[in-house]
C-alpha cells in the first residue's frame, strides 16, 4: 500500500470501522515487564502511534507523571481525551515526523510496523532527534513477514543495521514473554542515543 494512503483519514477509518486487529486490549506483556523495572517515575515518556494507549494507562496507574501519547488520527485522540479526562496523560494529535520535543524514553508498540517500510530510516532519524542524550527507544518489533500491509514485518537481520545507523542497540532478541498468538514472532529491543 503506498505510504500516502496511510494518513490520518486511513487510520481514523480503521478505528471507526473497528478494524483494529493489532489491539490486544491491554498493555503489551514485553513492554509492561520492562516498565516494571523502571524506578524513576519522573522521566519523560512518549508513545507514538499510541493506538488505545494501554501502556500509557498502565504508566499513569503506576505513578508515572510525565507521559505523552501521540497519534495521527483525530478520531482516536478524541476518544483518548474522553477516556483519560481525569488522568495526567498528555494527548497530542499530530504526524510523528512533525513532532518536536525530547524524551528520556520512547516506547515502540505496533507503530514501526504500521509505517510504510520506505519510512523506516526517517523513523529512526526522527527517533534520534526526539530522544534526549542517553534516552532510550524500547519496544517490540515483528520478526516475521506479512502479505501486503499494514502491518509490515521484517527480520532482525534487516533491523540491526538500520537501527545501528542512528542508535546504539543494547538488546535486540526474540521475546520470551509474547502473548500466545505472537509467540516466536516478536523481538524485544532497547536502543540508546549516545
Q: In which range does the helix fraction lie?
A: 25-40%
Largest sheet: 7 strands, mixed
Specify the overall morphology.
globular
Q: Would you list the SSEs in sequence order as H and E? A: HHEHEHEEHEHEE
Q: What is the structural class? A: alpha/beta
Total strand count, please? Answer: 7
Gap between N and C termini: 35 Å
Calculate the mean pLDDT score and round it. Answer: 89
Strand content: 15-25%
SS field, number of helical segments: 6
Identify the strand order in the major beta sheet: 3-2-1-4-5-7-6
Tell me which oligomeric state these chains represent.
single chain
As a whole number of angstroms, the C-alpha radius of gyration is: 16 Å
* Spans of at least 5 consecutive residues with low confidence: none
Protein architecture, described:
The chain has 194 residues and is α/β, with parallel strands linked by helices. The protein contains six helices and seven strands. It has a seven-stranded mixed beta sheet, sandwiched between helices. Helix 5 links the parallel strand 4 and strand 5. It is globular.
Amino acid at each position: 500500500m503506498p505510504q500516502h494512503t496511510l494518513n490520518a483519514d486511513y487510520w481514523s477509518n480503521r478505528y471507526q470501522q473497528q478494524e483494529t486487529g493489532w489491539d490486544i486490549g491491554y498493555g503489551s506483556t514485553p513492554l509492561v515487564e520492562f516498565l516494571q523495572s523502571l524506578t524513576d517515575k519522573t522521566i519523560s515518556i512518549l508513545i507514538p502511534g499510541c493506538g488505545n494507549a494501554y501502556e500509557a494507562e498502565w504508566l499513569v496507574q503506576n505513578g508515572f507523571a510525565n507521559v505523552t501519547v501521540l497519534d495521527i488520527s483525530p478520531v482516536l485522540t478524541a476518544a483518548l481525551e474522553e477516556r483519560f479526562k481525569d488522568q495526567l496523560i498528555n494527548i497530542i494529535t499530530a504526524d510523528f515526523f512533525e513532532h518536536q520535543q525530547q524524551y528520556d524514553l520512547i516506547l515502540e508498540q505496533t507503530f514501526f510496523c504500521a509505517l510504510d517500510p520506505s519510512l523506516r530510516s526517517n523513523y529512526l532519524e526522527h527517533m534520534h532527534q526526539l530522544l534526549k542524550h542517553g534516552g532510550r527507544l524500547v519496544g517490540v518489533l515483528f520478526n516475521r513477514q506479512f502479505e501486503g500491509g499494514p502491518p509490515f514485518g521484517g527480520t532482525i537481520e534487516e533491523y540491526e543495521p538500520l537501527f545501528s545507523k542512528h542508535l546504539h542497540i543494547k538488546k535486540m532478541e526474540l521475546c520470551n514473554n509474547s502473548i500466545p498468538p505472537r509467540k516466536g514472532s516478536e523481538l524485544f529491543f532497547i536502543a540508546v542515543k549516545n
